[in-house]
Amino acid sequence: MDFGLLGAVEAHEGGRPVDVGHTRQRAVLAALLLEDGRPVPVDRLVDRVWGDLPPLRARDTLYGYVSRLRAKIGISRHPAGYVLETTSTDLHEFRDLVKQARNAPPAEAAPLYDRALGLWRGEALAGLESPWFAATREALHAERNAVRLDRNDVVLDLGRHTALLPEIQAQAQDDPLDERLASQLIKALHRAGRTSEALQHYEHLRRLLAEELGTDPGPALRDLHLELLGPKPAVPRQLPAPQRWFTGRTEEVRALTEPSSTVAITAIGGAGGVGKSALVLHWAHLHAKDFPDGQLYVNLRGFDPAGEPVTPAAALRGFLEALGVPDPPQDVDAQAALYRSLVADKKILVVLDDARDTAQVTPLLPGGPGCTALITSRRQLLGLISAHGAKSISLNVLDEADARAFLTARLGRERVAAEPAVVDALLDLCGGLPLALGIIAARAVTQPDLPLAALAEELAEHRLDALDDLSSSLRTVFASSLRVLAPAAAELFGLLGLPTAADLSLRSIAALADLPPARARVVLRDLETAHLVQQHVLGRYRMHDLVRLYAAEVAPADDGPLRRFVGYFAATAHAGDMLIEPHRPPVDAPAGEVVPLADASAAMSWFDGEYEALLAAQRQAVGRGCHDLVWVMAWTLTNYHLRRGHAAEDLAVWRAALAAAEALGDRSKQVAAHRYVGMALTEFGVHEEGRHHLGRALELVEDDYGKAGAHRAMAWALERQGDLAGALAHADAQLVLFRGLGIPVRVAEALNDVGYRAAKLGDYARAEACCAEALALNKELGHREGEAATSDSLGFIAHHHGRDTDAVRHYHHTLDLYRELDNSYEEASVLRHLGDVHAALGDGEQARTCWRQALTLFEAQGRVEDIEAATALLRST
Questions:
Q1: Which of 261, 439, 641, 747 could form an SS bridge with 646, CB 3.0 to 4.6 Å?
Q2: Structural domain containing residue 407
Q3: What count of other Cβ atoms lies within 10 Å of the Cβ of residue 343?
């Protein structure tokens, strides 16, 4: 009996087919035949036939299959399992013929190979599906492919290339990356007089290997290529393989592609690890066909931590040798002249990677109009731009979408989708820096069983340590950039690692470094040129998070720079607060550099610009135990917070100030801190804790001025809690104390507080009398903030007293004043009330306009309850 495995599994007896049953039964037969007479245990047969999905009674089912086969085929049972002893299979015959062919001379081997390959009737073990059969089938096909390649070599040796060509071309389409098959096709094409097609196929394979595997053709194929080229002038193809996982950079690729009427020189600048080389090589491989005369490449190692930069002479010698000059001249100028002459009329791409400076690359620039030069550097090569008209492209980190695409390309969609929150964290921690993303991806790929969450946790806790591996290190990259800086720039780089703010103004950096602003700007320009800092808006500078972490590692241990830095914020904030609210009782000015501020508007602009850095400075003052600065910074921020509606931030800075006041043992500072913490907590509806702090302020206060201030805070808190009678009582107590002290501005504020609470209780006569007296006092004193607050109260009184036309007048005057004072918080509240008055007057359109304007401001200020109220009003009209 004869058996077939090289196609559908079948059996023949005396030339007649034998029915060997359905697919599973044929699978049992095939599993026994492939063991070459060795016994196969029942469990192994079950596994081979069904894999991971056996039926419930698999052994019984298998016994049935074997029983039916034994009725027709000689299967025997041994203690170790079932056995089918036969060598009458087409697989045995195939292997016997191949063995004979390999030991025969070419003329006899060719027909033997043909007979062997002719035994194949299609896909081996056709129709049998299980993991074991899939693996066995793949191994058999690999064996057949190897025989095909052996047979192709024999046929080529016999000179039958013309007849073989169609077959090899079809095979190459099915297996385009097989270098041995490609070599056979190139030989056949060349011998058939189609050398240009042979060279084209080599180039196609070279690019395919670079794109798919990131590698170049092997030595045998390269030697064959050179043999085909013969004695023609050398065409250099020096580009390294492109990055397989290159993603994004659409705008930069487009910018590199823009045509130029002159010699095209483009300088690509960016920080170390940002992906400059990857971008250039990606573009270069995409456009290699545009440079038929070759591509020259040199790594100039301008920032290589392991050695010195490549000299122009060494780079030129390499270029000249690649262009077919066996013995270049020794003089650099002569080398450069010869190089330019050789490429003058050619279309050649020149890639100068990792340049130190303009002087290093100038001799390497081609002069012909058909040439293109791409230069990468961590520094801005201003000399190239000014002297050679180079285009400049500055490379930044990847945006979130491109960074995610990069990780997905490296790790696969399934792994990224399995841990979406962890991937988000990794992207955030890497900050879009391609080198950081590449290191994390490499670690994940080489440790497939390690959860991404473990990598994210390590990266969060040990940022730079987690980004070191045997081949790449962010510390090394940053250190090599730092090594080439001027001493002043290197020193400033370390100082910039001290603050924790996301970005810094020129003035704050000047204070940190103890430099005049003009000098600080010059030194910062050196860091900008090295792509270690970025001036993202005029006068403000920032670092990538990972660069800042390295700067912190090399920062000086001296406490002086950071204290100067915090002192700048505290002193300027103090001066700005006095401009915003000149009637506020002063506190001692802290030591520090003060930025000149012309007026209250300039002060508000300074607070707006420096706000996040100012908060960060207070947090650092807390960490350094600078209690005096912590308290005064909270004090100076209070009015700004009121005008901008930063309630949560106000609570945070005053909690820190309370701890500082207690550490200082300063009773008056504790009173103020308790008062402001209590008011902030009440603003958030945390009434019990708020009352505790306001009560502590009243307990601790010793002077009448402080008692009046504590009563005012308590009145405000009780009003917020709905206790209007209690609020009025504290407001009256405040008024009595301030009248006794004879302080007009405080008396005016107290009169307004009493009048407003009286109005809320329905005593409009007293309310109007108090507010009218307060308004006159505020106007006499020039207290615009007090005038605005009192005019607001008069608007409220008029509206609730049935005089809506007067209310509109008062509210419009209030709006003018708050806008003049840049108090957007109160502006929003007044707009809401003005809308209510217009609604009462029947002017629905004007009411909706006011409510919409108020809602926009409420949303910007995060005032949840006010947002809900304004939204409800708009929906109801």
A1: 641
A2: 400-474
A3: 21
**pLDDT 10s digits, 644-659:** 888 899 999 999 999 9
CA distance 821 to 437: 48
In angstroms, rounded to a whole number, what is the distance separating the alpha carbons of residues 784 and 304?
63
Q: Which residues pair with 11 in a beta bridge?
A: 3, 18
Which of 255, 458, 237 lies closest to 351, judged by CA?
A: 237
- Whether 154 and 20 map to the same domain: the answer is yes
Query: What span, in angstroms and rounded, lies between the C-alpha atoms of 728 and 724?
Result: 6
| Lookup: tokens for 502 | 């996301």
Looking at 442, 474, 506, the residue that finishes a domain is: 474
Q: What is the pLDDT of residue 230?
A: 60
Domain shared by 449 and 490, yes or no: no
**Residues 151, 110 contacting (CB under 8 angstroms):** yes
Cβ-count burial 791-824 (b if 16+ within 10 Å, e if not) = bbbbbbbbbebebbebbbebbebbbebbeebbbb
Q: What is the pLDDT of residue 111?
A: 94
The residue type of 248 is G
CA dihedral 618, 620, 622, 626 (to 10 degrees): -90
Q: Which residues pair with 8 in a beta bridge?
A: 126
Q: Cβ–Cβ contacts within 10 Å for residue 170, how many?
A: 9
Per-residue confidence (pLDDT) for residue 261, from 0 to 100: 43
User: Is the alpha carbon torsion for 768, 769, 775, 776 positive or negative?
Assistant: positive
Run of H or E residues at 709 = helix 704-720
Residues 146 and 32 reside in one and the same domain? yes
The verdict on 412 and 289 lying in the same domain is no
Q: Are residues 123 and 261 in the same domain?
A: no
Q: What gap in Å lies between CA 126 and CA 130, rounded to an integer? A: 12
The Cα–Cα gap between 502 and 68 comes to: 79
Does residue 296 lie in a domain region? yes
Q: What is the pLDDT of residue 231?
A: 58
Q: Give strand pairing partners of 268.
A: 376, 393
CATH number at residue 382: 3.40.50.300
* Contact indicator for 516, 368 with CB cutoff of 8 Å: no
Rounded to an integer, what distance in angstroms lies between the CA atom of residue 380 and that of residue 318? 26
User: What's the gap between Cα 40 and its chain centre?
Assistant: 56
Q: Copy the structure tokens of residue 471.
A: 């081949």
Dihedral of CA 49/51/57/59: which sign? Answer: positive
Number of domains the chain contains: 4
**pTM exceeds 0.85:** no
Q: What is the pLDDT of residues 8-55, one digit of tens each?
A: 999 999 889 999 999 999 999 999 999 988 999 999 999 999 998 898
Q: What pLDDT is attached to residue 376?
A: 94
329 and 281 Cβ atoms separated by less than 8 Å = no
> Left if phi > 0, otherwise alpha if psi is -120 to 50, otherwise beta: which for 742?
left
pLDDT score, position 232: 58
Q: How many CB atoms lie within 10 A of CB 398?
A: 23
DSSP for 586-655 reads P-PPPSS------SHHHHHHHHHHHHHHHHHHHHHHHHTT-HHHHHHHHHHHHHHHHHHT-HHHHHHHHH
Kindly give the parts of the chain with pLDDT less than 50.
Answer: 261-262, 470
End residue of a domain, out of 394, 409, 428: 394
On average, the pLDDT of the chain sits at 90
Q: What single-letter amino acid sits at 753?
A: D
Report the alpha-carbon distance of residue 555 to residue 550 in Å, rounded. 9
User: What one-character DSSP code corresponds to residue 270?
Assistant: -
Exposed/middle/buried for 341, CB within 10 Å: 0-12, 13-18, 19+?
A: exposed
SS (H, E, C) 735-758: HHHHHHHCCHHHHHHHHHHHHHHH
3-state secondary structure of 40: strand
The confidence score (pLDDT) of residue 211 equals 84
Q: What's residue 228's pLDDT?
A: 74
Orientation angle between helical segments 58-70 and 23-33, nearest 10 degrees: 80
For residue 397, the model assigns a pLDDT of 92
